[in-house]
Amino acid sequence: TMEFTDRLTRVEPSATLAVSALATELEADGADVVDLSVGEPDFPTPETVVEAGKAAMDAGHTGYTTSAGILELREAISEKLADDGLDHGPEEIIVTPGAKQALYEIVQALIADGDEVTLLDPAWVSYEAMVEMAGGSLSRVDLSEHDFRLEPALEDLADAVSDDTELLIVNSPSNPTGAVYSDAALEGVRDLAVEHDVTVISDEIYKEITYGVEPTSLGTLEGMADRTITVNGFSKAYSMTGWRLGYFAGPEALIDQAGKLHSHSVSSAVNFVQHAGIEALENTDDAVAEMVEAFEDRRDLVVSLLEEEGVDVAVPDGAFYMMLPVEEDDQAWCENALEDTHVATVPGSAFGTPGYARISYAASEDRLREGIERLADGGYL
Ligand code: PLP
To answer: Aminotransferase class I/classII large domain location, by residue (predicted)?
Structure first.
């Protein structure tokens, strides 16, 4: 018989899977499920990006690339980061098959048995699993008491972070709350990171999807350049989830270490996908602006529909999620709502914050209306 490693047996399968398995089952039985559980844009990849991918294949870009990614793409990423105020040359960048792989490699490079990692809850589901697989332990700061804002929780963060803290993960705009952390909040993070010599991952995968606010990149703050690793990717801003393309940028020493894991595991991101990535970075401003505008309209729609039902939510400034306050047993709420009304959402406990359900508004206005109406009619709002 096979014996499995602790590093995997101690990890739970994603709690979002229970809901999506049930949704799939219902759909197979012919139900019309309004799926508000998905973490991906519902738009096609911009046409010019698809064309660039096809052209790259036709041009024979189908072999291995340098492990860190083709220089042309890393140069384009370097320029994109410079626009965000970050100074990373191509030698400080690794291109990965998705931001998820980037995060995995960074955590593997930095976290060993017993190392402490601080998360801001609710936090994206995979951070916890990545830390656990690396043998690290978690300290968590709950932002739900503060409408998911970080600034009023800085004292709690100060309690959670100590000289024993190795790593802090910050995700702004946030999945699942849509919160964009203020400059004052980020400065508070900086002060603690410097005081306790903590490395910080800034997961900026939703940075391009915001509504009237400009998120600051943590690595631009004084004292943060040497201790920040910036992660970003193409899945969300360019609607490229299935292409699997992301990257991270940080101090060269980190790049050297994580680069070993990268080269011995994935080798590189897909060659022609990297070529498409250049097009995405350089020529899609209008397409991205159009998608962001649509997300903003949908956010406004859902917030006002919920308001009409007497439900107040923390209005998100970015990404395409919001947290709906539900009963304490959020897992049961989500399962019951799905079974009764065929509306799929994700329980907040999957993100470390029970009592909420995450709604993704990456769906058409018709479907959003339909979903909220069904939840209201079913007595779930
Ligand atoms: N980080 C956050 C906060 C996310 O929500 C996601 C996707 O859901 C990722 C990283 C990973 O994205 P990808 O691996 O598709 O680039």
So the answer is: 32-375
Is 207 within 8 Å of 232 (Cβ atoms)?
yes
pLDDT per residue as tens digits for the range 329-370: 999 999 999 999 999 999 999 999 999 999 999 999 999 999
ipTM: 0.99
**203 CB under 6 A from ligand 1?**
yes
Say how many Å lie between the CA of residue 100 and the centre of ligand 1: 6
Q: Does the CB atom of residue 39 touch ligand 1 within 6 A?
A: yes
Burial class (CB in 10 A: 0-12, 13-18, 19+), 58: exposed
**CB of 171 sitting under 6 A from ligand 1:** yes
Residue 223, amino acid: G
Please give the distance, rounded to the nearest whole angstrom, from the Cα atom of residue 218 to the centre of ligand 1.
18
Residues facing residue 171 across a β-bridge: 203
Its pTM stands at 0.97
Catalogue all structural domains in the chain, each as residue range(s) with its CATH number: 6-45+286-377 (3.90.1150.10), 63-283 (3.40.640.10)
Q: Does 97 contact ligand 1 (Cβ within 6 A)? A: no
